Amino acid sequence: MLTMGIDSGSAMTKAVLFDGQEIVDFRMEPSGSTPGRVIHRLYEELRTPDTAFVVATGYGRALLPEADKSITEITCHGAGAAFLCPGCDTVIDIGGQDSKVILLDPSGGQVKDFLMNDKCAAGTGRFLEMTMSRVGSDIASIDTFVEGAEPVTINSMCAVFAESEIIGLLAQETPPGSIALGCIYSICRRTAIFAQKLAPEHPKVFFSGGLAQSQVVREVLARYLGVESVTAHPLCQYNGAIGAAVLGWNCLLYTSDA
What is the pLDDT of residues 43-94, one digit of tens each? Predict the structure, then answer.
């Protein structure tokens, strides 16, 4: 018996299969301009005869009417973090177009409070993606690209003005690695200021989303948060989908018991 979790995000759509103990399969695809087609394609590709319950989450969760249940991304990200990092009390997720801070009960993983920033792109993965494109690289190679670089200060508080600032820095022949690292520092500084409005004094932080795969981003974020380290996981980008699948399993058990 399996449950499926599908997270239709602004940038990527993620899907996982869960057997009650571990993730047994997972897929990811850009949401693109046709997120409805993408979520259906992943649903059909991953579904097996043993798939007994499907939970959809994320911006495009309503695009999958075949789902047995639709759950908000905050609840799913909380459940995913509690599964991947038992005992964590703070979840920081930097997504493609928003960032989230979720406060959890460390004993049970329930969401106690949350903050979401979906108004400014300058603190999101999309901003770093744009920066890497401007400097002639891509976000997947960020750690090697900034190796040995000294960060420049990105002063603009708006993604549009920050892009203009980056163009100006390139015109001044500022090293591209320094610009990219400065962008990382800017994102992490904003995220930490945002997170500290909610996080406890000595948080145990689980970092999810695509940027959590970068060692440099994890180190800089930990520095701004004032903690020794932040915890990530190889499947951190699937966190919302994992939480959806875990919650689906709980629904399945409840239905069976009833």
Answer: 999 999 999 999 999 999 999 999 999 999 999 999 999 999 999 999 999 8
CA distance 50 to 47: 8
Q: What is the DSSP string of 199-210?
A: S-SS--EEEESG
Q: Which residues contact 229 (CB under 8 A, 6 or more apart)?
A: 218, 219, 222
Judge whether 14 and 237 are in contact, CB under 8 Å. yes
Angle at CA of residue 198, ends 74 and 157, nearest 5°: 90
- Going by C-beta distance under 8 Å and a sequence separation of 6 or more, which residues neighbour residue 134? 163, 166, 167, 170, 179
How is residue 250 written in tokens? Answer: 């709980």
Q: What are the distances in angstroms from CA 1 to CA 51, 67, 78, 247?
A: 6, 16, 23, 14
Sign of CA dihedral 46, 84, 97, 188: negative
For β-strands 2-8 and 51-58, DSSP reports them as parallel
| 3-state SS class at 144 | helix
Are the beta carbons of 124 and 96 closer than 8 angstroms? yes
pLDDT average, residue stretch 229-244: 96
